[in-house]
């Protein structure tokens, strides 16, 4: 199955640059420069990945991200933000973007980010189509079950609605209980790249994951912070 990418960008030169370089990856690329039209397309059609600029005619990329995430929890989304706009980057991640890139950006870096997201999409497809091995048993720790075959997380008999990236982040941490990972290590293992300056991506996903799994996200017992180092999964928190 050929992957499809929707570029939502009102700067034609940037959109053309992205289109040409994604074509090298063998994906089908569509482009929309109007926010409202892009939102309709993103909801009505099935795209492997959305690349959303923040500033758009009509509604913003942030609004598109929020509304798409509500209707399609597993949709892969990369936000494009201005280099100086820290607020947009943080808000984009908090609203559910899987990753972000700041303009101007390296096309090679863009390709790497896109490949990383498409790998997650392929894993999700495999889970949904029973391609994964029948003996691929869920990872069970206490009252937490992480089922890769069905791409499902159950905690205290409740199914958690996680994005593909949140799922991979939790699975990676839980697969190495009590091991502390730095933000850079998590970027490399979960997102598939390491670029300095993007550590906030990890912070925001940890916050979103805690909001879904912790009894009190302000006092996390499962995904814990090791100050000055990074994060770890505590098995005691799920018993």
From TrEMBL:
<feature type="DNA-binding region" description="OmpR/PhoB-type">
    <location>
        <begin position="136"/>
        <end position="235"/>
    </location>
</feature>
<dbReference type="InterPro" id="IPR001789">
    <property type="entry name" value="Sig_transdc_resp-reg_receiver"/>
</dbReference>
<feature type="modified residue" description="4-aspartylphosphate">
    <location>
        <position position="53"/>
    </location>
</feature>
<feature type="domain" description="OmpR/PhoB-type">
    <location>
        <begin position="136"/>
        <end position="235"/>
    </location>
</feature>
<dbReference type="InterPro" id="IPR036388">
    <property type="entry name" value="WH-like_DNA-bd_sf"/>
</dbReference>
<dbReference type="Pfam" id="PF00072">
    <property type="entry name" value="Response_reg"/>
</dbReference>
<feature type="domain" description="Response regulatory">
    <location>
        <begin position="4"/>
        <end position="118"/>
    </location>
</feature>
<protein>
    <submittedName>
        <fullName>Response regulator transcription factor</fullName>
    </submittedName>
</protein>
<dbReference type="InterPro" id="IPR011006">
    <property type="entry name" value="CheY-like_superfamily"/>
</dbReference>
<dbReference type="InterPro" id="IPR016032">
    <property type="entry name" value="Sig_transdc_resp-reg_C-effctor"/>
</dbReference>
<keyword id="KW-0238">DNA-binding</keyword>
<keyword id="KW-0597">Phosphoprotein</keyword>
<dbReference type="Pfam" id="PF00486">
    <property type="entry name" value="Trans_reg_C"/>
</dbReference>
<dbReference type="InterPro" id="IPR001867">
    <property type="entry name" value="OmpR/PhoB-type_DNA-bd"/>
</dbReference>
<keyword id="KW-0902">Two-component regulatory system</keyword>
<dbReference type="InterPro" id="IPR039420">
    <property type="entry name" value="WalR-like"/>
</dbReference>
